[in-house]
Amino acid sequence: MTSPHGRLQREARACFGHIDRPLTAYPGLIGVYAAAPAIRAAVQATHQFGRLITRAPSTNPRRAPFPHSQGMCAPLELEEVRGTGTRRAIGKWDSWSICTGLWIATGYTAGLLFAPRTSRIAPRHPGGPGRSRLPAVRTNDHPALLRRDAVTSWPTPTVDNLQVWVLDFPTDAPEADGTATWTSTTMVLVQAQSTTTHGYGWTYGAAACASVITDLLADHVIGRSAFDVPGTNEAMHRALRNAGRPGIGGYALSAVDIALWDLKAKLLDLPLADLLGRVQDGVPVYGSGGFTTYDSQQLEKQLRGWTKQSAIPRVKIKIGEEWGSREDRDLTRIRETRQIIGPDAELYVDANGAYTAKQAIRLAKTFQEFDVRWFEEPVSSDDLTGLARVRAASAADVAAGEYGFTLPYFAAMAPTVDCLQADATRCGGITVWLRAAALAQSHGLDLSGHCAPHVHAHAAATIPNLRHLEWFHDHVRIENLLFDGTLDPTGGELCPGADGAPGHSMTPRYDVLVRHTRTSGAEPASGP
Question: What is the pTM of this model?
């Protein structure tokens, strides 16, 4: 048989078990619960006594228990008043209930003042074991019912330091497109640090980007919350007002922004794609290279590597050789490419703005023979009218946007192209690249990520209007050489975050970093 004490504890826990303090820290609540039936019984007894003294004798049993007092206080006893024919109530309360209730109520204040909160939400340590995707929640009984004021405040991690390297990587062969040539590519690598956690970002641009980061941007980044990446991006944007946001300033800002997103995801122990919110697991890519300096053997080797070894079903070559003055060779190389890749693979061409509008329109008609699906920068990206004219006359999709640094630039270009391009290493990092994707979607356009595929991969998995990413030969070679954690394009698709590695999963190899860090002031030519 259950004792009143056991029943009291059980019922109190049923009522107050969701509270996020230990039950022993709330003796007053048990006291109130114990005393309440006695109080209610007293009130009703008074009312009953008033009624009983006017009643005739009753044949009911002398005990008249009240249903609300079950087990919590003893029922009243009624006895006849001799010679009157009436009864009177005897206030015979259960002394245990009253004493226990008063004793526990006495401890109520002590429970409130001195009982520590034991429930908390503890952010998972980035370096901890396992792959928990959410902060660990610890409570006494019911974690789903945690009150906001029961959450322990934890300090927000801040950006403690920025470190910058300028790296030079010679090409594996001379490279050129329609309007530029180069034999080396420069990377500016940024490390953002918060305590012992590091995030990495980079851009392919002039070495002067490093000075912009250290001289103009660092003071607006260090000390800020490592979680507020868009806010830091805006602070950097404002810091470049007089120095210039487009151009080198945009490259520098982008590298820092990418590093900050990587840092935030690592602090939260999440793949960057999961932090941003996935739309898709796979990210389509196309093989890109086919430089105008390649001979037929070099071109065939590269194309077969993409289509046969990696099974990438779409490839792009450079045309517009020598500012569009070698149309005959452009057409020869397109014909060779189609023969090598076969009829099923998609064929793209990139003129890098080498043609005039009339020239591009004329050539676009000959491209139909080779089923060219993508005509990138047929004219200069600054010639929006020319882009619109080529788009109207071409069966291939016209694409441009890789030199965009601001959203107004993309907004002006959107009506003139079939697919908008954006480069996160130039336009403002992942923060602005995602905004460019939304802008493109508002115009009914897809977005294609330009170059630097490992920068874009995670962000690309989060947008619904992604066309593809550029698996650019030069940047793929550099990123595979410098970083651990690179992605595999086999099948024509990347799967960012599939291994659960936090951030964008890229970690520099120290020996390669040291070997390619610039030591002289001379700056080699830099590729796209």
Answer: 0.72
